[in-house]
Amino acid sequence: MRITAANGASQANFGRRGESIEGRRLSEVVRNAELHDAFRWTLEQRRPSDLRFERTSGDNRKFDVHISPLDLDGQRRAIGYFHDVTQIERLESIRQEFLSNISHELRTPLTSILAFVETLEDGAIDDAENNRRFLHVIRRNAERMRALISDILELSMIESGHVSIECREIELRSFISAIFDDLTAKATERNIRLVNEIPSDAVVNCDPMRFEQMMTNLVDNAIKFNREGGTVTLSSERCDGRNLVSVTDTGEGILPEHRDRIFERLYRADRARTSDVGGTGLGLAIVKHLARLHGGEVSVASVLGTGSTFTIELLY
Fold first, then answer.
1. Coil, strand or helix: which one is 250?
2. Which of 9, 149, 199, 212 is the most buried (most CB within 10 A)?
């Protein structure tokens, strides 16, 4: 039960402070009874064994381990192959969470559509007072589903590399003013003030259509998740060879545990409120990927009770 040989990857994963693991007992290097038993069983029975091994110290990495008997120089040995599946497990967890979320997001409007269709079929279609209201609910939920599916397809195309950008220089202040014009009605409904603090001489190099998509998503979110009577402010600056364009709101802010995940597909920091204000939950994921297509990034800074600032970095 002593380690007679180990490759570099094994040394890097199981060695401590650069010490060699060769010549040491397995129990000194890895404290896991199932792993010890699997090696001992293979040595004694001369038959292979397999197990899932999770290292509980450090970074909690997971390994699929295959152990085979080996005769070497007339001595019984066992060789263990450790396949690091930590990343695979993480991606599988994300996939399952995404499927669960997408099922929920589609089921909610579909349930409402079916319920009102059944009501109309049961005679409410002849109810002049309510039938148009029921049809309006059906249309609203159908449009919600269409928006979600459109965003899923859009995100899929971006992630698969099927979206290209054509950059040119644009005047930023007038460009943002046009976006504000499109969202003024929505801001007015919640008494939100839109403030354009972009300098008159500011320019950015971007794909106009994709940049409009990014900024519309961020400004729309800043309106939806703001306080009643709040403010949404657009600003920009140049820093270290990049253009920084920021969208600042005066909302409740984002909890620290949510900040690293809000750019994931369908991740909701506040599901209850998101259901009230609408949206597909894919907007920030699309912004992230479009920013990276421009050679930049999107980030968020937030103070609870004060508000949040989303910043897009673009190359000059």
1. coil
2. 212
